[in-house]
Structures are given as C-alpha cells and as structure tokens.
Amino acid sequence: MSSKRIFGLVGLNGAGKSYICAHLKSEFEYDTCSLSDAIRDELRANNMPITRENLIQMGNQMREQYGPDVLAERVAAKVKQNRLGFAIDSIRNPAEVEALRRHIPGFTLLYISASEATRYDRLCLRSRPGDEELMASIDTFRAYEAREREGSETMQQLDKVIAMADAEVDNEIDSNLSALLERLVLDGR
Predict the structure, then answer these.
(1) pTM, whole model, 2 decimals?
(2) Residue 53's closest CA among 143, 144, 153?
(3) SUPFAM superfamilies, per this entry (predicted)?
(4) What burial letters (b/e) apply to 47-84, b meaning 16+ CB within 10 Å?
(5) How many Å is the maximal CA-CA distance in the chain?
(6) Domains of the chain (ranges, CATH numbers)
(7) pLDDT digits (tens, 9 = 90+) for 123-170
(8) What 8-state DSSP symbol labels residue 166?
(9) Which residues contact 120 (CB under 8 A, 6 or more apart)?
(10) Which of 4, 30, 44, 90 could cross-link to 36 by cystine, CB 3.0-4.6 Å?
(11) How many other CB atoms are found less than 10 A from the CB of residue 164?
C-alpha cells in the first residue's frame, strides 16, 4: 500500500483548519500537528500564558532567532517518517512552506477559505483559549487579521502563504467538505 498525502493547511482565523485536521484524523487516519505547538511549548517553558498575542510575539521571536523556517524544520523530520498521511496546521510564513516542500516530496498546501462573517461566528462559538482577544469585536478581529496577513520576513505573512497554495478548500457552511477531502486523499494514494 502506498503512502497517503502530506497536507499543509493555511487559512485565516476561523476558516476551519483545525476542523479539517480533525476530519482527516477521524475519517482517514491521518496524523496531525500544528506548527504553533512548538510556540506553545516555548511559552510553557518560559511560564508565559498562551494567548494569541503571546503566540504571535513568540513565533516572531523564534523566527528572528532561528530563521523564518524554524517551526517547519522542527516538524519536518517527524512528518517524513510517517507513512499514514499527515496534516500540518498553522503554516503562516512562506519560508515554512519552502522548508516543507524541500523536505517532504509531494507536500500539498491547501488554502482553507470561508467568508469573514462565517469565520467570526465560528471563532465566537468555539471560544478556544487565546481567542478572547479576537472575539472582542469585529473591528478587533479585523485588526488582528490584518497584522497576520502582511508582516516582515520573520513574521506571519498569510497573504503570501495563501498565494503559494496548491488548491483551495471552500469551507463555508454549505460546502460538501467530506466529498472534497475524500477526493483529495484518494488522489494521493
């Protein structure tokens, strides 16, 4: 049996990246990870609370100190050893995409999209730790998002990463996500 595909997921806040990872895990037995896990580990090691602001600042600090691809480099070895399929969430810098493509043959970057209204509603419903800052108002949500979309080389650059995507997954409420993911997964076998 051949291996399944290795997917990377990029998308704006509340687009459904974590949901798609969970779906790939439960329906197709994929392993999953988030590049943000390395940032969370660093925050814990420094006894810092895991807030969106701290995640952004620590991620930027790690990219400045170790290079803009540091998070992807930390995940690549683990992913390369996996033959069951893998989904990597929280890709936010072009250097991360380049590192994953360099280390993982057949790596496929998926842009997970949904409207602003859908994404904000999802964010408010999920109430994940760290989301409180984003949920304050739609204007706050937009301000955080604008900052994450266009940063310097060692910061988040979501617009550039989205432009590097191999395919788009429309994750609006009425889309047929299961059928689309099944097609993507089966094409990789």
Answers:
(1) 0.86
(2) 144
(3) P-loop containing nucleoside triphosphate hydrolases
(4) eeeeebebbbebbbebbeeeebbbbbbbbbeebeeeee
(5) 49
(6) 6-187 (3.40.50.300)
(7) 888 777 667 777 788 998 898 888 888 878 878 899 999 999 999 988
(8) S
(9) 14, 138, 141
(10) 90
(11) 17
